[in-house]
Write a structure and sequence with these properties.
The complex is a heterotrimer. By secondary structure, chain B is mainly alpha-helical. Chain B is 71% helix and 4% strand. Chain B has a two-stranded antiparallel sheet with strand order 1-4. Chain B has a two-stranded antiparallel ribbon with strand order 2-3. In chain B, a hairpin with a 2-residue loop joins strand 2 and strand 3. Chain B is globular and about 65 Å long. By secondary structure, chain C is mainly α. The longest helix of chain C has 27 residues. The radius of gyration of chain C is 25 Å and the shape is globular. Chain C starts with 18 loop residues before the first strand and ends with a strand. In chain C, helix 5 packs across helix 14, helix 6 packs parallel to helix 8 and helix 10 packs across helix 12. In chain C, the strands form four sheets. Chain C has a two-stranded parallel sheet. A two-stranded antiparallel ribbon of chain C has the order 2-3. In chain C, strands 4-7 form a two-stranded antiparallel ribbon. The chains are: A alpha/beta, B mainly alpha, C mainly alpha.
Chain lengths: 405, 330, 496
């Protein structure tokens, strides 16, 4: 039996390899390259694709992002003639990363999609960069924070192509820098313990903060905890009692709350500091904790309306998705106007560089204009220019977030 | 692995005796929870020779049912009734609800496959587990809810609610009300189960059905009813464990049953599947191993340590610690 | 000849699926005769009469024309993924269908192959093996891992093997995602970011970079695997596997080397998965641990179970059906109205299968009437918020209006708990339907169908991705309890 299989296998392998590579192997450009320059009539309705994790381990984050995206579309459609329609794509981050590619291919071959918001994870952006590039789309992500997506690592090119990726969220370098600075200069703490939740977002931030602290001579200890395991008791036992600050760049606010409570219940009085992933004034309310987040202006009407619609529970993790939709919609509107009712994906992509949003329009608390060059140590083409940076909040005994930096 | 060994020794030294006590205390609490779930696995396996993959999800549903009752009582922050009746009500509803769920699963997913080849009910069990997890994900949007045990029933200006009051301390390490409660309640339930199985007539029919189903039915035992009640009891215990977990740590999440179920099953197997004292022992062992592994080796290695332990048992003592040697009858 | 004794009545729940005392050829004869009559009779007869190689060539011909009428995006989703899942299904079929071992860690082999490829064909360690060396090496390595795991099955009964493999998968995920030990200065598996920038497949200087090329290559691999397994199935080893699956003890008594066969099945399944992993990693040009999760495992299981355990064409058919419908229903493929028509059409079809025909008409008519009645009662008595919810995803306004007049869709923000109670109510009603029979069943079917429509409009349609996962679970349960041989498998018979 093995001989028969072996013979058949060898012959068939030879045949199929030769056939598949020579007959069709000549450099034939993928069909979607044409989609980049295909003229689309703007009409009264255009589509923006939204790639977000609707199911899976971070579905709760995806739900926040799509919530904010729908808010953006509703507000845009109420005040603009050119209406936006969302095409949602589920990238199933943490349960089936191949779905991200499927979404990218779907958007690429859907001629009506002129711009893309998302994907949510930095790894997803890198994986689908090739597909989007080939299709002429430039995804504008609201939560992919890895620095190397817009900046080259020493000796290696940047992970996406210039002009084919933008983001409406400050990156890990900026947040990590702000946090490390605050810990070192403002709080002046020396004994730090960092715990990440084993996801890419968390690991990236934790790495950055650890590296920054090391540069100023602070050796922070590092540990990990799985995102869906919430028994922190043994982890807390391992934290030395003389620790002054515990940094938890997590994404589940309820878990962060539990952790902080349990830490204090065990008699360890270290300060807890979180990142924008747990910037949720409704859920993370530990008295005396710090959180880094967007410098949102609480009087902004959009923010107030969103908070009201969610029973007084605001959250800011999905906020950059709103900004991303708004930026994409503005770019499409400008491109359609310049093209007299017709435009191409290439035109929209290039117009993104011309988009200028005021602090009130972006809701983030600062104006948005995408960079085309490197800036500072961490920002590169595609990042937001201006004062895109992080604010530090302190939680008082009523659970309110007070900005301290 | 060199640096790993060094870091383990480092951790042991830096934690010292105080840390070791904390790990021991945590391990016992966690172990009691695993033991309750493992009991359910072992009972169902004993009576049907079936691995009920959906059992961990019954535990998850129990936790959510408890949370549902908590919100009905305006909790967790503004309880309408006292904390003790609230907890009693949560337990009652969660246990009843999970029990009914377990019986329904048995009736509609497993009973049609009573005489099918072994693989069929296993695959169905996976299907049920998947269905339950995703249904809860759908209904909760993947959100994490919390019982807020640290503040539950807080009166006045105290910082921690009654659940987290220190009962006594050992060398400065507090042992809180909720930890004693979990261990105590688990022991109580386990004792009740052992009494049921060994002293009552119903327990005898359970043991008979587990031993030889056909012979038991020929002796006049209604095996269908016995199996249904076994599922009810097993799922009831899982539901109780769910509420206890909620009261201990608070976080309920649609995927919490998967890993807990896996570890509880490991506990049941290590203790000896089919043996009730074995499941209790196995649960405690797994709880302690996990706690010490997180403390000494590191959070990311604890699952791998448990897996390694499991493989070792499978290779060298597959019947577990207290299991009986399985004789295959022809 | 459809009145033979021992034929189970079609409507009874909980009937045994193996028929005692009937030879397998006789058991299949009724099916065969039923197929050759009727409208598709001649086609069925022709299909049965043609040799298996013809069937394979037909499949290749149809599959090979796909790139000519699909654009690259659709080819990737509907073509490439189908071929991937079909090949994975074939491998799982060897372990579960041929040897009868429930391998719940199968996706870990897929992952090991993918990570192996990432380690030897990328900048991660700067190693760039040529594809012709990398792929066979991966296949062999993954097979070896399977062999090691198989040694533990020596002492394990099938159930324990399931748990060992499930735990192995969990350990693999934790290892690649978190533990990520530092080897030679770099994290071995890249942590949760995984390893990116992998080399594409290169054969004799040509790189397979376009979707079409990758599709053809993978199709070739699928065809080879099918051919190989076909010959394996018809050989002595295949017969030994079938004996092992039916009754391991009897097989051992017949001096069939049971343990060796089990290990052989595991190794073959693992090797095929490893090969798929390497190719998949090259296609995705990256690999992360979230490519190999439990969801993917359930997907492959659904593919194999639907197609039929133990049959060769089963996984291929299962992959086509499941992947195409799954991708079609994904939100990014944007066919809201079609989804609705498919859903209601499926319900109507399901009811229309009831015999006698007048019962089906009564049920359908009753459901419509019931719906309008309930809607009228609710809008008359309760507050308007109970019927004021928005219908999701309607292409045409008239469709939306018709649905809103029939189904009670409450305003979501005001009645948040409605979802949960409606869903639980639906599950309870389905259980009640399953427990009854005859006219009672038809009667209770009416509110159940209406409830299904309500739950669909309020809960399921707005979240298509999770709905698909729920349907997978339900699919596994329903197939195992109603038709365990899947679509084209053969029913098992127990010879007494």
């Amino acid at each position: 039996m093995l001989k028969k299989i072996g013979a058949v296998a060898f012959l068939a392998a030879l045949v199929s390899v030769v056939v598949s590579t020579t007959a069709w192997g000549s450099a034939k450009a993928p069909r979607t390259a044409a989609a980049a320059t295909k003229t689309v009539k703007c009409g009264t309705r255009v589509s923006i694709g939204v790639a977000y994790p609707a199911t899976g381990g971070v579905a709760f984050l995806g739900a926040l992002q799509i919530d904010w995206a729908k808010t953006a579309v509703k507000r845009w459609n109420a005040s603009n003639k050119l209406k936006i329609k969302l095409v949602q794509g589920d990238t199933q981050l943490t349960t089936n990363a191949a779905a991200n590619l499927a979404v990218a291919h779907s958007f690429a071959s859907n001629g009506k999609v002129l711009a893309v918001t998302g994907p949510a994870g930095s790894q997803e952006v890198q994986d689908s960069a090739g597909v989007y590039h080939g299709a002429g789309l430039a995804p504008v992500s609201g939560s992919a924070t890895r620095v190397f997506l817009t900046r080259a690592k020493t000796g290696k090119p940047r992970e996406t192509s210039k002009g084919f990726f933008y983001r409406t969220v400050p990156n890990d370098g900026q947040q990590g820098d702000a946090v490390a600075n605050f810990i070192n200069k403002d709080l002046k703490k020396k004994r730090i313990y960092i715990i990440d939740d084993e996801e890419a977002y968390s690991q990236g931030l934790a790495d950055q903060v650890q590296a920054d602290l090391k540069k100023v001579g602070i050796n922070a200890s590092r540990n990990h905890v799985a995102q869906n395991v919430s028994d922190f008791s043994s982890l807390i036992a391992a934290i030395p009692s003389n620790t002054q600050l515990v940094y938890i760049p997590w994404q589940q606010a309820a878990e962060a709350q539990t952790f902080a409570s349990q830490l204090h219940a065990n008699g360890k009085n270290a300060i807890v500091m979180g990142s924008d992933g747990i910037d949720a004034p409704g859920q993370f309310t530990t008295h005396g904790a710090y959180v880094s987040g967007f410098p949102v202006d609480a009087s902004n009407p959009v923010y107030k309306a969103f908070t009201k619609a969610h029973k007084g529970q605001p959250e800011a993790f999905g906020l950059p998705t709103y900004t991303s939709i708004w930026a994409n919609a503005t770019a499409i509107k400008m491109a359609c106007k310049a093209g007299h009712g017709k435009t191409t994906r290439k035109a929209v992509r290039k117009t993104l560089l011309k988009v200028k949003l005021t602090a009130k329009q972006s809701v983030l608390g600062f104006p948005v204009k995408f960079l085309n060059t490197n800036k500072g140590t961490f920002q590169g083409p595609g990042d937001m220019g201006g004062n895109a940076d992080f604010a530090i909040y302190h939680i008082n005994n009523k659970g309110a977030y007070i900005r301290v930096k | 692995m060199h640096p790993l060994l060094f870091s383990i020794i480092d951790n042991i030294r830096s934690l010292g005796w105080g840390g070791a006590f904390q790990l021991l205390r945590n391990g016992l609490v966690l172990g009691s929870l695993y033991a309750l779930i493992a009991l359910g696995y072992t009972m169902i396996y004993g009576i049907l020779k079936l691995l009920n993959f959906a059992h961990g999800d019954v535990y998850m549903v129990g936790a959510f049912l408890g949370y549902g009752i908590l919100t009905r009582l305006n909790g967790p922050l503004n309880l309408a009734i006292g904390i003790v009746p609230a907890i009693a009500l949560m337990f009652a509803v969660a246990m009843a609800g999970s029990g009914v769920l377990g019986v329904a699963i048995e009736r509609f997913a497993y009973r049609p496959l009573r005489n099918a080849p072994r693989i069929a009910p296993l695959i169905t069990a996976i299907g049920v587990s998947f269905f339950l997890e995703n249904s809860v994900q759908l209904l909760t949007n993947g959100y994490q809810y919390t019982y807020n045990p640290f503040e539950l029933g807080k009166t006045g200006t105290e910082e921690l609610g009654p659940l987290y009051h220190t009962v006594f301390s050992v060398a400065g390490n507090p042992v809180t009300t909720v930890q004693l409660f979990v261990v105590g309640a688990a022991l109580l339930l386990m004792a009740a189960l052992v009494l049921l199985v060994s002293r009552t007539k119903f327990g005898k029919s359970m043991r008979a059905t587990a031993f030889d189903r056909e012979a038991a039915s020929m002796m006049g035992i209604d095996t269908d009813r016995v199996i249904a009640i076994t599922f009810f009891i097993a799922s009831m215990l899982a539901g109780a464990a769910g509420v206890m977990f909620g009261l201990y740590l608070g976080v309920t999440y649609y995927f919490m049953g998967f890993l807990a179920g896996l570890k509880a099953f490991t506990a049941a197997v290590i203790g000896g599947i089919g043996s009730i004292p074995g499941a209790m022992l196995g649960g405690l062992i797994i709880g302690l191993v996990e706690s010490f592994a997180i403390g000494y080796v590191g959070g990311q290695w604890s699952d791998i340590v448990i897996f390694g332990l499991f493989i070792l048992f499978m290779l060298f003592r597959p019947r577990g610690l207290l299991g009986s040697r399985a004789i295959q009858k022809v | 000849m459809s009145d033979q004794p021992n034929t189970p009545a079609p409507e009874q729940p909980g009937v045994e699926q193996t028929r005692i005392g009937v030879d397998s050829w006789v058991a299949e004869s009724e099916d065969r005769q039923a197929r050759t009559r009727g409208f598709f009779g001649p086609a069925a007869r022709g299909w049965d009469a043609s040799p298996d190689s013809v069937k394979l060539f037909l499949f290749i011909a149809v599959a090979g024309t796909l790139p000519f009428w699909m654009n690259a995006g659709d080819l990737f989703i509907y073509g490439l993924f189908t071929v991937l899942y079909a090949t994975l299904g074939l491998g799982l079929n060897v372990v579960v269908g041929f040897a009868g071992l429930l391998d719940l860690g199968y996706v870990a082999y897929f992952g090991i192959g993918a990570y192996g490829y990432a380690l030897v064909s990328s900048d991660h360690y700067g190693i760039h093996w040529p594809t012709l060396a990398a792929l066979p090496a991966l296949t062999a390595f993954t097979g070896l891992v399977g062999l090691l795991l198989g040694f533990t099955s020596r002492r394990l009964v099938g159930d324990y093997f399931a748990i060992v493999t499930l735990f192995f998968l969990q350990a693999f995920l934790v290892f690649t995602n978190t533990a990520n030990p530092d080897i030679a200065g770099v994290g071995l598996t890249g942590g949760s970011s995984g390893i990116g920038n992998l080399d594409p497949l290169k054969f004799f200087g040509y790189a397979l970079t376009s979707v079409k090329q990758q599709y053809y290559f993978f199709l070739a691999v699928l065809v080879l695997a099918t051919a190989g397994l076909y010959f394996a199935n018809r050989s002595r080893t295949g017969r030994a596997w079938r004996a092992l699956r039916e009754d391991p003890l009897a097989a051992e008594v017949m001096s069939i080397p049971v343990n060796r066969l089990k290990r052989l099945a595991i190794v073959m399944g693992a090797a095929l998965a490893g090969l798929c992993g390497g190719i998949f990693a090259a296609i995705q040009t990256a690999v992360t641990s979230s490519n190999f999760t439990l969801n993917v495992l359930i997907f492959i299981f659904a593919v194999v179970i639907l197609g039929g355990l133990g049959s060769i064409a089963g996984p291929i058919l299962g992959a086509i059906v499941i992947n195409v419908s799954f991708q079609f229903l994904q939100p990014q493929n944007d066919h809201p109205d079609i989804k609705r028509w498919l859903f209601y059409g499926a319900i109507v079809l399901f009811v229309a299968l009831m015999k006698p025909w007048y019962r089906a008409v009564v049920v359908l008519g009753g459901t419509l009437a019931f719906g309008f009645a309930v809607h009228a009662i609710v809008s008359a008595t309760a507050a308007t918020s109970w019927t004021g919810g928005a219908v999701t995803d309607t292409g045409h306004a008239s469709v939306g209006k018709a649905i809103a007049d029939w189904v009670v869709i409450p305003n979501q923000t005001l009645h948040g708990g409605f979802d949960t109670y409606a869903y639980i109510g639906l599950v309870v009603l389905v259980c009640v339907v399953r427990s009854t029979s005859g006219w009672w069943r038809s009667l209770i079917l009416i509110p159940t169908l209406y409830m299904t429509a309500v739950v669909w409009e309020t809960v399921l349609a707005p979240s298509p991705a999770v709905t698909a996962e729920i349907l997978f679970g339900v699919l596994l349960i329903v197939i195992m309890t109603a038709r365990p041989q899947g679509l084209i498998g053969t029913a098992r018979v127990e010879i007494v």
